[in-house]
Amino acid sequence: KEACWAISNATSGGLNQPEQIRYMVQQGCIKPLSDLLNCMDNKITQVALDGLENILKVGEADKEESGNAINQYALFIEEAGGMDKIHNLQLHDNIEIYKKAYSIIDKYFSEEGEEDEDSELMPGVDQQTGQFNFEGDVSVPQGGFNFGN
Q1: Would the pTM of this model clear 0.85, i.e. be above it?
Q2: pLDDT (tens digit per residue) in 23-81
Q3: DSSP states of the chain as a string?
Q4: How far apart are CA 68 and CA 54, in angstroms?
């Protein structure tokens, strides 16, 4: 727990001290912070989330600076199992943990164009009636449906 506080405090400089965060990532701080997301102590969970978010901010700045398409630190967190744990924290009873987890997933782990993909799956909407348009030429199989009877 003390190490979690120390790592989180060291990352709190964020974009003002990106070299410090890069060094800590090189030393392997992501996996232990990710593992602490399952801690029963809400304060430690929040501190671990703060530390990971600070790391992600530097990863985002590095991504934009290098013209990369991927936040490398987000990838490291995903590989360490942290993304799944953060995702699960969106169901947490503590509202602050829920909000922080939601914000991190939304900002750093949602894919570009995700909404566009979903809209392609949705049937069109009739502008006059406001109802969904489904294919009209769907026919019932000869002999009807048989559900295992």
Answers
A1: no
A2: 999 999 999 999 999 999 999 999 999 999 999 999 999 998 988 889 999 999 999 99
A3: -HHHHHHHHHHTTGGGSHHHHHHHHHTT-HHHHHHGGG-S-HHHHHHHHHHHHHHHHHHHHHHHHHT-SS-HHHHHHHHTTHHHHHHHGGG-SSHHHHHHHHHHIIIIISPTTHHHHHHHHSPPB-TTT-PBP--S---PPTT------
A4: 19
